[in-house]
Amino acid sequence: MTPQSAARGIDARLLELGDELRAEGVAIGTSELLDAFAALAVVDWTAREDFRGALAATLAKSPEDRRIFDLVYDRFFFRAVESAALREGVREWTGNDGGEAALADGPQIDLEELRAQIAQALADFDEARMRDLARLAVAALGRHESSGSGILGVDVQRIRRALGLRSEAQLGAGDPRREGLPRAALLRFEEMLRRELERAQIERTETLTPARPLGELDRALPSGPAADLVAVHRVVAALRRRLASQGGELRGRRRHDHIDIRRTMRASLQTGGVPIVIRQRPRRPRRPELYVLCDVSTSVTSASVFFLSVLHALHDSFRRMRSFVFIERVSEVTDVFARERSFKAVSDAISRDAGVADVSGYTDYGRVWSEFRALVEDDLDPRATVIVLGDARTNGRDPRPAEFAALASRARRMLWLNPEPRLYWNYGDSVIAAYAPFCEVFECWTTRQLEDFVKSLTSAAPA
Amino acid sequence: MSVNALPESVDELADGLRAADYLPGASAALVAYLALRLGKPVLVEGPAGVGKTELAKALATYLGRELIRLQCYEGLDEAKALYEWNYRKQLLRIQAEADGAGWNEVQDDIFGREFLLARPLLSAISATEPVVLLIDEIDKTDQEFEAMLLELLSDFQVTIPELGRIAASSQPVVVLTSNNSRELTEALKRRCLYLWLDYPSLEHELEIVRLHAPELHETVAAKLVEIVGMVRELDLKKPPSIAESIDWARALLLLGADEINEETFAQTMSVIVKHRTDLEIVAARVGLALAPAAQ
Predict the structure, then answer these.
(1) Residues B132, B221: one domain?
(2) Dihedral of CA A369/A372/A376/A382: which sign?
(3) Which of A34, A50, A346 best probes binding to B when mutated, by most B CB atoms within 10 angstroms?
(4) Which of A54, A351, A373, B73 is 20 to 30 A from A63, comparing alpha carbons?
(5) In chain B, which stretches have pLDDT less than 70?
């Protein structure tokens, strides 16, 4: 260690970690850092998990923050170690100090044996052995073509294929791979491979690649067709839990103002027991009646189906809810959600039966407003809330804002969720500005924005 | 009740909690240890029924301290949580002194400790022996209540306008639990250590079930835990909690079941799944996957 970095020591390192976490949006104050130092004073630093746990308990105080913390922590300490190694000129692959280098150069590693061992370690989810075997695998396979492809993701997949690791069932009785490997273990192993490859690359090039900030993607709504359904479900479950109490609160209170006897009595103390000031319980907020219109054209499909399933998961919070999907035409899908519970089934059913695409398959907002008006004109309650989810991209067709305005005048509240970042609004064929005067427009492309929106829907009294 | 000193290491605390019939995960033991050593409150979050409340109870048992519990609910305010003036007694006092005594004397008198009704929070900090204070389901209260807690949590003191400051005579161990049904304020989180408890791993849950239903045959217990894990994977209104796994284990014991097959599952699944639509889903997805009853 250079004298300078020795003097700065671990304290400075922790402050740097705090800075990186802040940069990723975790709220860390001085008091959190002080707590972290205090916590580290009482745990054993040699126990990896305790060290990490102590930091996590004091720095990351919500499930989302914890997820970011895990990612940043790994990245930070990996980079800290590697940059120190670079400075000191520590190398692992020099070949003359035995160990793995000898393994790589000496007798060929028996690939079949290595495969079986890795499969076994994965089946047992033995982290320490997985880490060792990842090093070995990189030594055996990662450096055959002297530098690999140079792209980590590609190399990881190449090694994985070479090792024959798959999560599906395979043949060969007695082989631990037969049952198919646990997915979680496989992912973890890939992560380790990636790390080892990165380490080797840093050694070769003797430079650290700049830290990659966690993509907003890690937190964004699923937007591609390949979006992980598990992640979707997790978000829905979290939202439902979080809003459950709100729904209960809305149902629990009485309609009329009630006098709060106890608080009135207490207030009366100031006037010698004569109740002069009457205290009342707060009024209960209204449960809105909802009409939801979702654009399901290819540009926004997954965001909208996801959004619909969130709303349906929360239908307890609303008095009544009807949902519609549209591309060129509009069609009601309330029943689909009542019948199907899985996100995938809903999404399939909508694309199969809804019949919303006519000829071109491009969104026609103007026509949708007219049809929707004809469909619900008589039903539309003056207290109803209408929510539109769409990117307002008309593909050059007439947006017919007058129709939209007529709808808006019938409903109590008109909301528009745009799954595109605000930056892209009104560029190209996006005509959100034409509708904006008649509704409240929200930007909604991360789970947090969605959550804020749902919260405001169930709690805030409409303006 | 024997009073234990603070533990010297994480392992010691983990063993102590185990002796109190609570099997802590690695992070639970670590954070509880930090809380004891640093004297900071712990905020425990996680889905319902993963043992958040039990952790506080086990800590109280282990430390040999009294557990004071404040169950939060919507509308809870300081008069029910912290302190209240006993106004009936105050009125009586005023009437008794009505003639003769001067204004100042009466005023001084009626705002004395004699007229103070201590609610859970106040009694926790004014107890002579240190206690464990459990503030359960803090997410059910409103933000005003959280703000009121701040003084207590950071300085272990309470300010009563008429009386002045009451500092803690002993420092309680404070555990707050939350089902994460709403975001707590930053200010509250800042004063606490954070512990996220999730559903346990299969092995861990198996241990827990074995601890609470030791007579159940091991293979049945293992199967049970596996099924509960499968049920949790489904998209249910209310996934089964650990407490429900234990209940199910006990139910199977009572029925004398020596294996879990389609039939026993159908009979007893209402122990772990408590919603009509959930029951249908579970019956369809899990029930059919089980072997039919032996002939």
Answers:
(1) no
(2) negative
(3) A50
(4) B73
(5) 1-4, 98-103, 287-289, 291-295
Chain B residue closest to A66 (CA)?
B196
**Buried/exposed code over A163-184 (b: 16+ C-beta within 10 A; e: otherwise):** bebeeeeeeeeeebbeeebeee
pTM of the model: 0.63
The residue of chain A with its CA nearest to that of B190 is A32
Span A130-183, pLDDT tens digits: 777 777 777 776 555 444 555 666 777 777 777 776 655 444 444 444 455 666
| C-beta atoms of B190 and A29 within 8 A | yes
B90: domain range? 83-118
Q: From B196, B212, B246, give the residue that closes a domain.
A: B196
Q: Are residues B110 and B236 in the same domain?
A: no
Select from B196, B214, B239 the last residue of a domain: B196
Residues B245 and B132 in one domain: no
Q: Is residue B15 part of a domain?
A: yes
Is residue B2 in some structural domain?
no
| A402, A395 contact by CB (below 8 A) | no
Q: Are residues B191 and B269 in the same domain?
A: no
Residues B62 and B145 grouped into a single domain: yes
CA separation for the pair A461, B5 (Å, rounded)? 53
Judge if B89 and B161 occupy the same domain.
no
The verdict on a CB contact (< 8 Å) between A246 and B180 is no
Closest CA to A447 of A303, A235, A278: A235
Name the token pair of B174: 């404070």
pLDDT in tens, A215-232: 443 444 444 333 444 455
What confidence score (pLDDT) does residue A341 get?
A: 58
Q: Is the pLDDT of residue A423 over 90?
A: no
> Does the residue B35 lie in any domain?
yes
Is B30 within 8 Å of A42 when comparing Cβ atoms? Answer: no
Looking at the domain assignment, is residue B292 inside a domain? no
Assign residue B146 the CATH number of its domain: 3.40.50.300
Q: Are strands B132-136 and B67-71 parallel, antiparallel or unpaired?
A: parallel
Judgement on whether residues B129 and B109 belong to the same structural domain of the protein: no
| pLDDT value for A428 | 78
Question: What's the confidence (pLDDT) of residue B175?
Answer: 94
Nearest CA in chain B to A230: B233
pLDDT of amino acid B144: 79
Q: How many structural domains compose chain B?
A: 3
CA distances in angstroms from A175 to A118, A134, A224, A400, listed in the order given = 11, 19, 36, 65
Which residues in chain B are closer than 8 Å to A341, comparing Cβ atoms? 235, 277, 281
Tens digit of each residue's pLDDT (9 = 90 or more) over A73-111: 887 888 777 777 777 766 655 444 444 444 444 445 677
- Same domain for B91 and B127, yes or no, is no
